[in-house]
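wait is this the right file?? whatever heres the structure
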């Protein structure tokens, strides 16, 4: 037993820093959130008395919560679908043997080096109702300027476009890496068999690329549910709660309204929704073609 402990001690010691980080930033906040959700707290975050399920009842009878939930799901669907689709198209184009491909690969992956605050600030000027390039272009083709950040019909699209643009770099790199891992012999054999380009793309390339697409589906979904910086800079959750996504609602509830108990309930609901979505996604993992 002594020899076994002595042999495993270096591994245990090396794992302690990672274990401390997990406990400090994951396990402890999760336990604290669960405790807050069944209690009433004051503006300093101190527990005043037990609430049991009263906070949950308040949440489920709150109309603004359902508005934020619907906005979050809509935003997530838009960003995930278009982020993966655009990244896939760009990766396929850059996988072809064309002139200038290295330059375009650099351009398409460059958004990975842009922070959320910098990206949102750039979009803030591009979509400016008076001097923005987007509205100026719309004027040129005879379309009236759009109030991207103050019109509830367009605000979610402004935030979504920002998020999609910032997701493209990572998605492009993942899918490009997946395409380059597909063996050259597969491409050569399909050419010998007389398979057309689109047949090869649909029946060979995409099935072999499914692990990369599945990984991107998981990561992009998680990132979309955690979107905060672009919302705070562009719309502040408005107008009319059209971009008041759950994560931003948690922030406002806790650090603007000082309702730490109510914010904790929202956090638990968000965690539950993400777990359910991940459960169904992993149920479909068996359809992924691993080489």
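ok assuming it is, sequence goes like this
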């Amino acid at each position: 037993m002594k020899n076994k402990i002595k042999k495993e001690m270096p591994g245990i010691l090396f794992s302690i820093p990672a274990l401390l980080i997990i406990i400090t930033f994951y396990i402890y906040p999760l336990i604290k959130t669960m405790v807050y959700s069944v209690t009433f707290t004051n503006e300093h975050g101190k527990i005043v008395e037990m609430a049991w399920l009263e906070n949950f009842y308040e949440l489920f009878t709150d109309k603004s919560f359902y508005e934020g939930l619907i906005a979050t799901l809509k935003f997530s669907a838009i960003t995930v679908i278009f982020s993966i689709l655009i990244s896939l198209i760009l990766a396929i184009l850059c996988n072809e043997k064309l002139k200038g491909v290295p330059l375009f690969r650099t351009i398409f992956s460059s958004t990975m080096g842009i922070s959320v605050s910098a990206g949102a600030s750039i979009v803030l000027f591009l979509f400016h109702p008076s001097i923005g390039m987007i509205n100026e272009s719309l004027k040129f083709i005879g379309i009236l300027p759009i109030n991207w950040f103050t019109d509830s019909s367009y605000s979610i699209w402004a935030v979504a476009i920002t998020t999609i643009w910032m997701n493209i770099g990572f998605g492009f790199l993942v899918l490009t890496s997946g395409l380059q891992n597909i063996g050259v012999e597969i491409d050569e054999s399909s050419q010998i068999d007389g398979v057309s380009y689109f047949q090869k793309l649909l029946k060979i390339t995409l099935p072999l690329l499914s692990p990369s697409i599945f990984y991107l589906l998981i990561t992009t979904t998680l990132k979309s549910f955690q979107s905060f910086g672009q919302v705070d800079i562009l719309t502040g959750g408005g107008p009319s709660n059209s971009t008041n996504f759950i994560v931003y609602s948690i922030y406002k509830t806790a650090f603007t309204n000082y309702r730490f108990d109510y914010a904790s309930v929202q956090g638990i609901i968000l965690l539950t929704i993400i777990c359910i979505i991940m459960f169904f996604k992993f149920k479909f993992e068996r359809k992924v073609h691993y080489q």
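The radius of gyration is 24 Å. so i think its the right one actually
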